[in-house]
User: What shape does this take?
Amino acid sequence: MFRFSAAAASALAALLVGHPAFAHHPGTAGNSGGAGPAITIPATTMEQGHVAVFLLHEYTALGGLSDAVLVAAAGRHEHAHSIGSIQSTGLGAAFGVTNDLTVSVRLPFVLRSDIREGTHTHVHGGAAVNSVTARGDSSGIGDATVLGQWRFFNNPAAGTEVALLFGVKLPTGATNVRDNQGELFEAEFQPGSGSADALIGAAFTQRFGPWSFDANVLYVAVSKGTQQTNLGDRFLYNAAVSYRLFGPLGRATGIAGVPTNAIYTHAGHTHRHDDGKMHSHAPELPPPAQWALDAILEVNGERHQRQTIEGLKDPNSGGHTVYLSPGLRASYGAFSGFVSLGLPVVNDMNGLQSKPDHRLVSGLAFAF
Assistant: This one.
């Protein structure tokens, strides 16, 4: 029987370029052992030798810029764009290298819809015409992310764990997607960035009975990629409170925070007592699969630096977004799924940009 936490799958990072959007982990089997977050990265790792596979989907609806705003920007010779939505559907897997080291990998398919821009042209005679061009959608395979999670502090009696996060985003995504007019999309709208980026951060978990508090920070150091563009470094921070609404928490006599799945199966054995008699013990059976449901409330934030194109900073890029994200997680045996709705409470974007209206993140996972 394997032992997982509420977020053991740790599909911990696949970046979407352009708009603040970060992909997440759905958790896996063992969510029946204790509550845990949907988006925040926990400090808990997978047990050595076990694997989780998962499917994740993120949809961000954006408040697009109006035609009037785009036309006015074009008249000022400002390069402004509007986007309708950003979607990412990713497949991934997580591996328990040791009990304290988990490595995850994820590859997304990215779709940006309804990309429009203001254009400034001069007709015969020199008259200026400002208009809006509908460039269409940009879609394709995105950049893969590999992330390690090393738990360097674990106190089961206190329910406290701390882990180091480290990894890399690889330039596996498409960078040659063209618009409705056959023009190459700018780097910020491509499914892939063309850059290899480093990730470093930390995660913290504290459990008390049916409650779990998790927090993490993650810094993404972005390098120059396609079209001589650096999309800008990112700093992500998350915090979550989770509560087990119903379902098992662990042994009735166990320590709070130790999941039922921590009860290991072992072979039967025979041993001799001091009275000289032989006694046989049957194998300890794994606990039966049970339903569990967690309520989750998270704060998910991201600061994104302005992008630079051939060394020049784009004033209409970067910013700071914070979501308040209620959600639910259900699990049964080796299966787990979650849904989280993010509502922006801070929407401080630089210059003229489409701002997030809401974000829906969901996931399914299976562990073995």
Observations:
- The two ends are 9 Å apart (CA to CA).
- The mean pLDDT is 82.
- Residues 120 and 130 are 5 Å apart (CA to CA).
- The first strand starts at residue 51 and ends at 63.
